[in-house]
């Protein structure tokens, strides 16, 4: 398994959890972003800077991904592509994207986009909190244990 991180919007605390997990489990990890991302010195962890642009980082991840790889992303369309390729997609709050839930999540995302574009104030996602961090760490541990 290789861990791919859609790193532009990934919270720092989640990156830190991922750095420790990659080292602990001897798992290769690549962070992909359109800005410089600092990583700890490790032969297992690297960062790729892609040009700025719509879905450039997402497209890079999809091109490099193989079945069974893990992708950390809050981007639902990217998660849908990962699931289609038979990868594993996990968001930074610990929600696993699956064949069973991805269509519904895409529909809800599209519906909310339609509301926002018509001027309806939908608010944003709730603030990232300690429970989200724990849920992510626990789900990540389960996924990495399965990969062994």
Automatic annotation (TrEMBL):
HAMAP family: UPF0178 (MF_00489). Belongs to the UPF0178 family. It comes from the Bacteria. InterPro entries: UPF0178. This is UPF0178 protein SAMN05216175_103144.
